């Protein structure tokens, strides 16, 4: 079975298009990088806001698949809401770190109880100097298969 770092670029065209790289991908944390690429710059020479949104959302998807991949036979993960705040000017390569906002066991317990659980994934986007350039919260659900 392919790793999440192999699976996402194969199945999500934007991951491939933006050349996102995977530094870490576990059930509790995912770290993805957006290389500095002129074709995805904005009007001030840094990464476009849409590229940073895609980076953060992809990091959240990586952690969701890592945490709940064993549930895919009975539920499909879906992003239901996202909020992003751009904090500082991003220049050069940026890195997104995603963390699950609830214990995976609690989410699975709700699924086991016949519910459609929702859970947040918190993502921090940083420049190479460590400055936080953005923060994003994506609410995900596991929609039971019918």
From TrEMBL:
<protein>
    <submittedName>
        <fullName>YiiD C-terminal domain-containing protein</fullName>
    </submittedName>
</protein>
<dbReference type="InterPro" id="IPR029069">
    <property type="entry name" value="HotDog_dom_sf"/>
</dbReference>
<dbReference type="Pfam" id="PF14539">
    <property type="entry name" value="DUF4442"/>
</dbReference>
<dbReference type="InterPro" id="IPR027961">
    <property type="entry name" value="DUF4442"/>
</dbReference>
